[in-house]
Amino acid sequence: MWKWLFSREPAAPPPVVLVPPLFDFPPLAARNRMLHSSYDVVFGKLALGSLFQDYFHQARHFTTRIMLKPMDDPHVDLIATVSGPLDRKPEDNITGNALFRWQSDVNDPHTFMDLYVSTSDPILQMRSCAYYPKYGFGAFGVFPLLLKKRESSQDYGLMGLRYGSGNLSFGVTLMPFAMKDELPKSAWLVSKIGRVTAGVQYEPQQGNAKLSNLMNWSCAMGYGVGSGSPLCPSFNFSLELVKSSQFIASFYQHMVVQRRVKNPLEENSVVGITNYIDFGFELQTSVDDAIAANNISDSTFQIGASWQANKNFLLKAKVGPRSSSMAFAFKSWWKPSFTFSISATRDRADGKMQYGFGIQSESLREASYQRADPNFVMLTPSKEHLAEGVVWETGKRPMLQSDIDAGHFDGLPRELRPLDKIL
Fold it and tell me: Is residue 62 packed enough to be buried (19+ CB in 10 Å), middle (13-18) or exposed (0-12)?
């Protein structure tokens, strides 16, 4: 009786919102960004490339990829890829390649060495990069070790030196076995002031490498908002003039939204889930009269969108003047994880629908849902809150919007933190 009078029911757990892991982390292109000019990866180019290319398979082709990381040594991993046509013809070939990579720091992809083998050129290639964040200086190299035929100085390898910080990046790419009259392959300078980023790149043309030749120069300017964390909305807009012959305008927007869910497989305290939505647009047009005269369709554009509904489903679509495509991917987070993807492409010229398939197995990471305060990442103050802001009394505290705004990402998985502030 006394027990009945004085006993108190345990307090219900506070409501939380699920935060799914990213479908792909890190993107394969981002792992190699230190091998390229900063000019070629900023201005939203990496994000746009992933939006318009990933999971959009070539029509009537398949792609199989295996990504493995040994449990005893997380510093190394192996990626093997096999691709080819679904209906093989005598003139079509099935290609295969493998990449063995060693990375100095598990959470820092900027210092690494890898070996690449392939059934096509280059048959064997070594790449290496060393970057020292304390000083901001780095060096990188790409060396084809086995080629069927070497035709130019670039086939003997490339080397580069770079400096990178949060607001400035410059560097040069050289060909160590270049001829006497060959200049550096490229040189770049990129600077960021506030939300505005501007850059120039020099790529000399053979036969006319003068600095006064505008065909050797490219320039770009961009405006960006966002911390770089997938948990924060971001927006990037850029304008680029490529070698005085092509004009490119693009924008990329990353949105973080919440929707109500009632999942019988989850606890009753789960009241919502976070979705990642991405939009992108790119317009390319010729500004050279000679090129425009010889090419009727000298302008093109593409619009793309991506929606990650949870940790298992990803839906993408893109539209252009010549074709439109849609892709669907399903990921099962077993050990190893398994991803099946299918893409459909409709050619506007003949109206035919063609399909491509992809299968991927991965053991590079272990990912799971994170818990967040229901007021987390609300995009507008007027949006209906799923529940009042709460703090755990016991146990692990959920992610709070105030922590993200203040830049406190220590308790989050690596993939949900902002990218390193290196231009």
Answer: middle
